[in-house]
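Lab notebook page, bench 4
Experiment: in silico fold of construct C2
Operator: M.H.
Input chain length: 244 residues
Purpose: comparison with the prior construct
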Amino acid sequence: MDIDKLLADSSEETVATKETVSSEETAISPRTGKPIQKKYAPKKKGKPRGLGDVYKRQGNNWLKPENIAPGLEAGDNTKFLSVNMALMNMPDIDMENPLEVQQRLSDYFALYAQYDMKPTVVGMAIALNGHNRQWLYAVTHDVPGGGAGYKIALPPEVADVIKKAYFLLENLWENYMQSGKVNPVAGIFLGKNNYGYQDKTEYVLTPNQQNDNDYSADEIRERYIASDQQKRLSASNSDEDTSD
């Protein structure tokens, strides 16, 4: 066996293999006909990635319940729905009977206390025969309600009972805000929309002028007489200057 011949054949096969691999890996440019270097080769376009893919790569998924509603705990939806279903199923009462209105408001506060929830303005309005918060605001602030501009026709004793409960809600709102039991942004929003609180300063400018009603008849007469005398004096002075 010729060792030199075997080594020569092996080297030829190795060179041929390298050339084959090189030709397979090197792409030829159709425009220039030259091999395309890898650093200038166009990058392959992959599947577009959105924000969800970024969250997934980071180990997060925005579809998880804790990411959709971070403050929502198990059973919260059941609790909220139970309270609202109880409000919806409350039978109507005689809104002209202060005793029935007082009992309904007590039941309303007891319902929210039973589920350990903060009472709401809209919930109170719904408990009073399914009204909205605009109706409740009109009753408690003695302003016209509805499109006709008429005040809500309720007996004074009934309106007083509703006002007392409404002011109790405002007091609870202040307690929650001072104790940090409600989100400050949400608390400020509720205070402005439900209880009329404002965080702005208003300036009222009044002109410092007196009207004729601020003078007596004698003062007005003297004012006009003095003006007339001044006109006559000015006219006489101009005549003298002209004669000179």
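Observations: The chain is about 60% helix and 0% strand. Residues 15-23 have pLDDT under 50 and may be disordered.
Next step: discuss at group meeting.
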